[in-house]
Amino acid sequence: MNPTKLIVHRRPSLRLQTWDYSWPWWYYVTIVVNGRQKILGSVVDNKMQFSSLGEIVWDKWQGISKQYVGAEVDDCVVMPNHFHGIIIINDQSVGAIHESPLQTETLNPVHEEYIKQRRHMTLSKIIGWFKMNSAKEINLRQRTPGCTVWQRGFYDHVIRNEADLHRIRTYIQNNPLQWSLDEENPDNVRD
Length: 191
Fold this sequence. Notes:
Blueprint: E1 25-32, E2 41-44, E3 47-50, H1 52-62, H2 64-67, E4 71-78, E5 82-89, H3 112-119, H4 123-142, E6 155-158, H5 162-174
Antiparallel strand pairs: 1-5, 1-6, 2-3, 4-5
Helix pairs in contact: 1-4
């Protein structure tokens, strides 16, 4: 086989193609445990009970704003085998959540310094930090160095407006109540 003609298989991007994920905005993410293993806790009486590994995930998510000064975390929920959360990338040039960055001229500057600064605040980098550091600590706790904790990638949704934010917050808050019906619940696998 000719090594210069290697075929690289790439999965299609799940990202919104018209969106720059370094833009300051509100983002909803879902991250799933590798193999959908229920290692983060269990739902008891419609309430999530964290395992020690679920506590690690919670703590690392809360640590995002310490690691990334321009980022905040909003509502989130650790479920037995996945995680939902809202993350906010802040910037002074963004007004209220209902103002779309696509309509704001100040969010598309060509100034080189701005571009360099924004590279440090992309959603993927923040989620990558979260996944890497929570996985390291989980593997330390379980004495399984190097094991894969999270599935590759993550689901994201750019929050469109206040109504969308309200719908997502409600979904996050009610997620433990819906666990018995959740498609991420391995007990719900249908043939």
